[in-house]
Amino acid sequence: MVALQLRFLLVPFLTSAMGAAQYMMQDAALMNYIDRRFLSLEKRLEKCNQDILDYVEEFRDFSQMVLSRLAGLNSYKAEVKNEVENLLTRIERAQRDIDYFGSVTDSNTCIEVHEDLVKQQLLEEAEEKKKLKLMLNASCDHMLAGIKSLKIVKKTGDKHGSWMKDPGKKHTKIYLLNGSVNNVILEFENIMTFMEDNHTLKARRVTLPSPWEGTGHIIYQGFLFYHRYGSLNEIIKFNIPKRKITDQMLLPGAGRVPAYQLSPSTKIDLAIDEQGLWAIHAEPETGGNIVITKINHITMAVEHAWDTSCSSKDAEAAFMACNMLYVVYNFPSGGTSRIQCVYDVLAAVNTYEIPVLHFPKRQGSHSTIHYNPKEKQLFAWGDGSQIIYKLHTKPKV
Q1: Quick one: which of 231, 273, 221, 271 has its CA closest to 255?
Q2: 341 burial class (0-12, 13-18, 19+ CB within 10 angstroms)?
Q3: pLDDT tens profile 52-109
Q4: Residue 346: how many CB atoms within 10 A of its CB?
Q5: How far is CA 55 from the centre of its chain?
Q6: Sign of the torsion formed by the C-alpha atoms of 257, 336, 341 and 159
Q7: What is the pTM of this model?
Q8: For residues 205 and 185, is the Cβ–Cβ distance under 8 A?
Q9: Fewest Cβ atoms closer than 10 Å to its Cβ: which of 214, 242, 357, 377?
Q10: Half-sphere exposure of 184 (CA within 13 A, CB side)
């Protein structure tokens, strides 16, 4: 009887103990699972942190490389931009050649050209000429007929240099720019002061922030326009009274070869006539022939460009006068300078019938010849001498 009662008491106890043991085993398994999950997450977080550190290091190295590359590109920004512009110019010329050859090919086939298309093309050409005449003021109707006389004003400075007046101002100041590489302008109150023996003591010195290259600079309306030394084709606009650079531009296609074979230091020759600012240079793509570009002197933007038939071979200088280019030639050893190639941008004159014009009474060479539209004279620099040539003009026919 006692045994039976004891049995009834042990059964619930054992059942309870086994249930507790079972729960403990489940809890242990759960804890083991949670522990393993935490270990897995910690390893993943550790790997994630390491990956982030690696990515940060890689990004830092990449950033430093990019910044160094950008710094290098920034220092050559003008040159890169110039190369791009040169490439675009060459592409445009190649496209023109392709269009030309295409038109020749079409003309050899049995395709009838529609009369309306021809009329439209003629109208477009006439409209383009009309725009050019408006832009260049077609009332400028005179041309060079001869060089009457010369006056050697002074002999000072190096073999190469430039001197001039400002045709855009009312004052009579004289500007002397000595040498093919320099950064100092000498300004004289008038030509009498310039002609004095101790003229340099009375000159006002204007120092440029960067030197010029060649002798093709020009002064107009208080600004000096010059080719910056060390650049391929950068033109600087410098305010002389305020002594600071106000603008600059890159001249497409220029700077790779000299403008004139006999003046190799001058890659870009700037000129002034009745219509304003021009640039004269040569290009390999034109076979060394001279290219002239009309530049807006206020905005420093290219307005139009012309490929001329005038060769730079044996040329020593050139100048613009009333929309016409006059190229001066000589012998490599020096001699009598002569104008034997003329180009009219408006095609109003048959330049092939213009006779050769000789410079009078002088043997030697010129490093610079500038036309002054206000005085209708040439200011030239020849072998260290400052010369004025008086001109004879006639109406265009």
Answers
A1: 231
A2: buried
A3: 888 778 877 777 777 777 666 666 666 666 666 666 666 665 555 555 455 444 444 4
A4: 15
A5: 42
A6: positive
A7: 0.69
A8: yes
A9: 242
A10: 8
